[in-house]
């Protein structure tokens, strides 16, 4: 028989976008394995009507929050993505990948809403959704419900930590350019830059209270916008002919393009928190819907930035377009300083999320009197690991492609498709089993991106480091 959730015990986490703190959705810690099998009675439960929100967000605010979570520093990597695709392939590739990513986000949210009815839970986060899907899916999979939640929790944590490592690389590259300009090239060993950043990172990541971190989010947003505008100024000031760049690139480089675009575009970790805090969550999906409007804007901005940046800088386009700017000019220098400050504060904010996930899954194994000490040690270890990973893999665009292919292809493409597949396994796949065929194609595509993208990224890393 289908499982139901015992709603007596909850634990909470927090998901942070670039400008907002989102209270976690309910994390259900106990599952009652006895439940009625009557689907009609279970689906009569309306999770939207049972959500108790002190400050629900309007559609416009939800649009803004989702837009901010998807429009981060990743947009500055789009010119580097286009050099692995070409102008025309890059444009159409960005549109196609944007559609696929949007549809997978749709599957995640739709499955979460549907399984909330069955589980009789007002709202569910990503990990809780997959736990509920397994708990109410085919009988052989139900025993895997708890382990699936733990797996997704840790995958999400390491995904965000990987993004933090990317931020460290961008910080070091930007500071190194400024120091090299004023004091000469290689005056400081690059490893020393990573060690120097380790100190402030260790200090700021010890902040456990969100209210001390949240004010920096708005400041980081302003700096990112200013950086984006300065980059556009430089792109358009000396714009070459459109036919000066190839329309397509080597097909073997396409996995790098796909991985970079997915990394830049995916905001899979904040989608459900945004939907769960809406005053009218039924407006999130559908046409036009908050999701479709937001992703349309995101795809257009990423496509324009990638196209214009690649036409301007060609194969010289770096992992962040700010690295292509001439440090000797004041606006360019300001852009580099802005991106350093914005990325540093973004790092500290993003770092909070995986630490909450890790602590949620480990604190029960630690005595209460050692909780504070254990948290300090845990934060120091993971912060050091992100800096060590950044120092080991210092090529920004290659690490972005690796991160996108390895983590975001799974969380953004494979997992949502598998959840939809499992949830509909006993509920039907529609006429001609079109849902089954579509979900399998998405899983195969995500697996291809993961394998091919990781392989190509590792080849590039080995080639450049040899």
From TrEMBL:
GO terms for cellular component: vacuolar membrane. This is Amino acid transporter transmembrane domain-containing protein. InterPro entries: AA_transpt_TM. It is a multi-pass membrane protein. Residues 58-457 form the Amino acid transporter transmembrane domain. It holds the Pfam family Aa_trans. It is found in: Membrane. One of its GO terms (molecular function) is L-amino acid transmembrane transporter activity. The keyword Zinc-finger does not apply. Keywords: Membrane, Transmembrane, Transmembrane helix. The chain crosses the membrane at residues 88-109, 151-172, 187-205, 212-235, 255-272, 284-310, 330-355, 376-393, 405-423, 435-454. PANTHER family: AMINO ACID TRANSPORTER, GH04538P. It comes from Manduca sexta (Tobacco hawkmoth).
């Amino acid at each position: 028989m289908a499982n139901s959730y015992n709603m007596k015990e909850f634990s909470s986490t927090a998901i942070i976008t670039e400008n907002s703190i989102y209270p976690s959705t309910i994390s259900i810690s106990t599952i009652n394995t006895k439940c009625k099998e009557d689907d009609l009675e279970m689906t009569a439960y309306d999770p939207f009507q049972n959500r108790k929100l002190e400050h629900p967000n309007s559609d416009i605010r939800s649009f803004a929050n989702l837009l901010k979570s998807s429009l981060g520093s990743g947009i500055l990597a789009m010119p580097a993505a286009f050099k692995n695709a070409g102008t025309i392939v890059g444009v159409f590739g960005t549109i196609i990948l944007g559609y696929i990513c949007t549809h997978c986000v749709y599957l995640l949210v739709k499955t979460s809403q549907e399984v909330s009815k069955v589980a009789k839970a007002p709202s569910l986060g990503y990990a809780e959704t997959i736990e509920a899907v397994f708990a109410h899916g085919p009988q052989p999979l139900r025993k895997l419900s708890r382990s699936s939640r733990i797996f997704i929790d840790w995958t999400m944590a390491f995904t965000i930590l990987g993004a933090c490592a990317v931020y460290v690389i961008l910080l070091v590259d930007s500071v190194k350019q400024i120091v090299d300009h004023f004091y000469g090239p290689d005056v400081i060993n690059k490893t020393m830059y990573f060690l120097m950043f380790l100190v402030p990172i260790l200090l700021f990541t010890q902040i456990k209270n969100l209210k001390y971190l949240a004010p920096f989010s708005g400041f980081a947003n302003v700096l990112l916008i200013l950086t984006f505008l300065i980059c556009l100024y430089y792109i358009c000031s000396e714009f070459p002919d459109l036919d000066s760049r190839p329309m397509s690139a080597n097909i073997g480089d396409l996995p790098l393009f796909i991985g970079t675009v997915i990394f830049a575009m995916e905001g899979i970790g904040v989608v459900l928190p945004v939907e769960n805090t809406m005053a009218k969550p039924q407006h999130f999906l559908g046409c036009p819907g908050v999701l479709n409007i937001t992703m349309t804007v995101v795809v257009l901005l990423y496509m324009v930035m990638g196209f214009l940046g690649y036409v301007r800088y060609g194969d010289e386009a770096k992992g962040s377009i700010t690295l292509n700017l001439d440090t000797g000019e004041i606006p360019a220098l300001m852009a580099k300083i802005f991106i350093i400050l914005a990325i540093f504060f973004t790092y500290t904010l993003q770092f909070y999320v995986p630490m909450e996930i890790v602590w949620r899954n480990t604190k029960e194994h630690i005595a209460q009197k050692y909780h504070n000490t254990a948290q300090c040690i845990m934060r120091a270890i993971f912060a050091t690991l992100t800096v060590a990973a950044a120092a080991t893999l210092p090529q920004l665009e290659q690490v972005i492609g690796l991160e996108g292919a390895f983590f975001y292809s799974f969380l953004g493409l494979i997992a949502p498709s598998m959840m939809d597949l499992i949830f509909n396994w006993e509920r039907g796949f529609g006429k001609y089993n079109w849902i089954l065929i579509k979900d399998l194609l998405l899983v195969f595509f995500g697996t291809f991106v993961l394998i091919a993208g990781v392989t190509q990224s590792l080849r590039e890393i080995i080639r450049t480091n040899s």
